[in-house]
Amino acid sequence: MTCEWSNETGLLRILSEYSIVTSTENLYHYLKHLISRYSCFLKISNLGIAKKTTLFSILFVVVTASAAVIIIYNTTNAELMKYALRNLSHEVANKGVDISGKIDALQKEVRFLIDTQPIQSIIGMRKDGRKSYTGKSTDQQWRRRLERIFLSRLQANINYLQIRYIDVLGEELIRVERKQGKIYSVPSSDLQNKSGRPYTKEITKLQKGAVYLSNINLNREHGHIVEPHVVVLRVATPVVDNKGTAFGFVIINVDFGRQLERIKQKYVGDSRFLYVADNQGSYLLHPDPKKLYGSDLGSGYRIQEEFPRVSTLYLPQNEALSLTALPQETNSMATAFTKIIYGSTKPDQFIIIGLAEPYTHIVLAWGAMLENSIIWSLVLIFFSGLFAFRFSALLVKPLEQVTQSVDSFLHGGSTGSLPVSRKDEIGILARAFRSLMDRVAMNQDKLSELNLNLEKQVDERTSRLKEAETYQRTILETVADAIITIDSSSLIRTFNQAAEKIFGYKAVELIGKNVSILLPKPEQKKHEEYTANSNLYQSRIINEVRDLEGRHKNGSMIPLELTVSRLQMSDGHYGFVGVLRDITERKRIENLKNEFVSTVSHELRTPLTSIRGALRLLVGGKLGELPEEANNMLEIANNNSERLMLLINDILDIQKIEAHQMVFNLQEINVMSFLEKAVTDNVGYSKEHGVDFRIVQRLDDVRVSVDPDRLMQILSNLMSNAARYSPKDKMVEISLTRHNGMVRISVTNFGPEIPKDFQPMLFDKFTQAVSEEARQKGGTGLGLSISKALVEKMGGLISFVSKEGIGTTFYIDLPEISG
Amino acid sequence: MVELKKILCIEDNLDIQTVIKVALISNGLTVQTCSTGVEALEVAVPFGPDLILLDVLMPEMDGPTTLKALREFSEIKDTPVIFMTALAQPSEIAQLKELGVLDIITKPFDPMSLADQINIMWMGRDDLRMVK
Predict the structure, then answer these.
(1) Helix A534-541, helix A521-532: angle, nearest 10
(2) pLDDT tens per residue, range A299-325
(3) Residue of A612, A617, A638 to mutate, testing the B interface (most B Cβ within 10 Å of its Cβ)
(4) How far is it, in rounded angstroms, from Cα A294 to Cα A631?
(5) Rounded CA gap, A379 and A18, in Å?
(6) How far is B130 from chain A (nearest CA, A)?
(7) Do A613 and B109 meet the contact criterion of CB atoms below 8 Å apart?
(8) How far apart are CA A153 and CA A150, in angstroms?
(9) Does residue A792 share a domain with residue A672?
(10) Residue pair B22/B111 in contact by the 8 Å Cβ criterion
């Protein structure tokens, strides 16, 4: 079987199958069957809200209704029986009252008849002694009148069979009867003598006003039971005069059976059974005609046998007049019996009336009602289910609408129609969704706009980047300098065309190899040191121009000028970009120049040594006195040879520094002692310029690492300058202090300010404030330039302060050796 | 203390030779001059100098070679020698000193104070000898 739930059809199918349920037992089984059959639908999570709601509504109604039905069924069954029984006993009592009433009416009737005029007249005549019926005419008249009364009574009362007037001798005087529906008076000739009948004697013995009631039994004529059977009750009362003399009695035969029939018709439907039995238990009324008149007909059927409990009512000592019995089994009946004692003087004159209703009938009525209820319930369930489905669909529809909207929105469609105008929660939800979607849409627009802008920017940047890259690549490939990038592990990353030309390698041969392949052995060692102690050495090599030798692929050495820059690599480490310039040509020219300068200087110096020596000997008077003019000339020649010597010395120094041929023999020295020695050694300048070198500030135990000869050269230069530009007889102050964590040597004179314009160029080569003055003062114009180079080569700094009226101070700052 | 009297000066530059000669003679010293190392080897022993002034840079036989050759003569093997050089580099000077000379006079020298300078060095020769 398929488990599809096609909208209402599934529901309808269930409901239509429901409608065949007729009992609670079946209902239970059917529910079980349904649950097993449609169990796949109970995977409720797969269903929509509408279906869930519907299913739950139906289930709820069914379960509650079933429970209610079962409870009601169980509790009301007993009540129902009780009620039915009460109803029966009530009815049976009613019947009893009815019958009693009828009997009472008969008693009144018979009393009424004896009080009528004709009977009184007859009594009167009999008293007068007219024992014979001589006065026939008058007697006949009265008899006729009575006859007419009797006939009218008979006519008026269809139950009456016979009214008779019987005298004390048992002679029937008047007999009016009904036969085959006709009423007629029996002629005198046909009148009978009833003196032999037991009731005649009985009635004549009765007091005036007393009423005789016969047993109720089948009518007999001449001792035989009359066919068809007629159940007869005889009511009689004696005719007695005031003195108590009996004259006879009036007797009415009543068709009691007919009476009973009428009662039966009046009360009893198809479902109930009326039983009437006489004081013997013989049935006067029974649904089954065969069981009637058990004692009269000798068949022996008795009520005590059919309803054994009734026998208690037949016990003389039992005063109870009614009896009810619940059905013992489902095929038995509920019964109610009542005992009606109609003979007021004789307690044994009674009849038993019983009413019975089969159990099944009682229950059937209830069952029908139950069935009705179930059918109506199912109809209601169906409609309420339908309603629930429609209603939940109504509720869910806007939700679905919202869901579809969101779904279609998610898949890039439009939001569609949303139930935003609703005033309930769904409306709120829809509005919230709408505003959310609006915002999302807005943001999407913004985003796409941004994206577009971004793309444009990216394009722009990319093209710019490409341009820049092309530019850089072009530069990289056309530049004459070798540009090599290495990573933190000294592996070559890039190698440009110029590098290929310089080193003779192809880029592909070297990329990924260690850069040391390009270095000669000593440089390799240095490079390893640099990379091993990168932090220590980086400051020395980064952005510093350095000369070194590279190794060509063919093993020859190439003089190179190297500039290294640090580069942040994409892997987070530092790499280095080395720009290497082939300085072979420059070196060659430099060497030529240096050689030239050196040669020239040496070649100049040698003859100058002789000239200067000769002149000094002459000026010094070693060769005797000369004329004054000759002496003046010699003085000029001597001074200039002196100056020339200094100049040549300085040029040689400069040449050495520039050719990196200056060798520094670093030693640790005590600065204070060194200054004292400098003052002593340079005492010649103080004498020459008439000044006094004096140490004014001291620091003991301060040590620096320097080349002592070079430091002395620097100090001599500064002190000679100070002396040269100091006013005569003034002091040149020398002090040793600490400044910015360095050792500071200061040389101060109190001369004029160095001209402001000249100050920035003070350390340049061949600069002197006023050349004429300088010439007079002596000096080469190279001293400060050399001093600066030397101080810096030893890791120090040189600076000065010059102010008019205060003087000029030169500072040498050197790194102190701690400890 | 023995007084410094006789000085042998070996200097290829005749002008400088003359200046040295004049500077020293004017201070009362006896000076014999040679222009080459070869010449010096001939003159040195006969002259018997108290001190030898030896130029470092000379054609053919340079100062150190001449020094070595002179030391071959037993007569003058202990005679103090003073190098005269234009080389001013400390390393060069140190190298020269290793050759066992009394001292080094750097050129250009002051002829006026040359005799005093040499005399001071001469005074210090005992220290050298003691060190030796």
Answers:
(1) 120
(2) 778 888 788 777 777 777 777 777 777
(3) A617
(4) 206
(5) 10
(6) 27
(7) yes
(8) 5
(9) yes
(10) yes
- Written as one string, the DSSP assignment of A646-702 is HHHHHHHHHHHHHTT------EEEEHHHHHHHHHHHTHHHHHHHT-EEEEEE--TT-
Pairwise CB contact (< 8 Å): A612 & B108 = yes
d(CA A649, CA A787): 13
Domain locations in chain B?
6-131
Q: Does B105 touch chain A (CB under 8 A)?
A: no
Tell me the ipTM for this assembly: 0.82
Q: With an 8 Å Cβ cutoff, is B91 touching chain A?
A: yes
Interchain pair A617, B112: CB under 8 A: yes
Residue type for position A684:
G
Cα dihedral A568→A571→A572→A578 (10° resolution): -30
Residue with tokens 């039905």, as numbered in its chain:
A69
User: A218: closest CA among A287, A304, A299, A312?
Assistant: A299
The SS3 assignment for B49 reads coil
CATH no. for B6-131: 3.40.50.2300
Q: Look at the alpha carbons of A91, A228, A157, A141 in this order and tell me if their dihedral is positive or negative.
A: negative
Q: Look-up: residue for tokens 């234009």?
A: B86
- C-alpha–C-alpha distance, residues A205 and A246, integer Å: 8
Query: A510 and A649: one domain?
Result: no
Shared domain for A600 and A578, answered yes or no, is no
How far is residue B105's CA from residue B119's CA, in Å, rounded to a whole number?
12
Digit-by-digit pLDDT tens for chain B (132 residues) are 678 899 999 998 888 898 899 899 988 999 999 999 999 999 999 999 999 999 998 888 899 999 999 999 988 888 999 999 876 666 778 888 888 889 999 887 888 889 999 999 988 876 555 444
pLDDT tens digits, one per residue of A320-375: 777 777 766 666 777 888 888 876 667 777 888 888 877 777 777 677 777 787 78
Contact B18 A645 (CB under 8 A): no
- B91/A620 Cβ within 8 A: no
Cα distance between residue A221 and residue A197, in whole Å = 12
By DSSP bridging, strand B6-10 and strand B30-34 are parallel
Q: Of the candidates A772, A773, A789, which has an alpha carbon nearest to the alpha carbon of residue A724? A: A773
pTM, 2 dp: 0.42
Quote the minimal CA–CA distance from A574 to chain B in Å: 41
Same domain, residue pair A627 and A691: no
Determine the Cα–Cα distance for residues A210 and A111; give it in Å rounded to an integer: 9
Rounded-to-10 torsion of CA A341, A346, A347, A348? -90
Q: Is A653 left (phi over 0), alpha (psi -120 to 50) or beta?
A: alpha
Q: How far apart are CA A400 and CA A404, in angstroms?
A: 6
- Considering A135-149, A181-195, A464-478, the range whose residues carry the highest mean pLDDT is A464-478
- Pair A541, A606 in one domain: no
β-strand partners of A336? A324, A355
Measure in Å the smallest separation between the Cα of B73 and chain A Cα atoms. Answer: 31
Q: Does A617 touch chain B (CB under 8 A)?
A: yes
User: Domain count of chain A?
Assistant: 3
Choice between A623 and A706, residue whose per-residue pLDDT is larger: A706
Residue with tokens 């004081």: A279
pLDDT tens for A768-809 read 555 555 555 666 778 888 999 999 999 999 999 999 888 999
* CA angle, residues A201, A203, A206, in degrees to nearest 5: 110
Q: Are residues A810 and A671 part of one domain?
A: yes
Based on the fold, state whether residues A497 and A611 are members of the same structural domain.
no
Across A125-210, where does the E strand assignment appear? 160-167, 172-179, 182-185
A229 CB near a chain B CB, below 8 Å? Answer: no
Q: Are residues A610 and B16, on separate chains, in Cβ contact within 8 Å?
A: yes
Q: How far is CA B99 from CA A618, B65, B78, in A?
A: 35, 10, 13
- The range of the structural domain enclosing residue A620 comes to 589-658
CB contact under 8 A, A665 and B20: no
Q: Given an 8 Å threshold on Cβ–Cβ distance, is A610 in contact with B86?
A: no
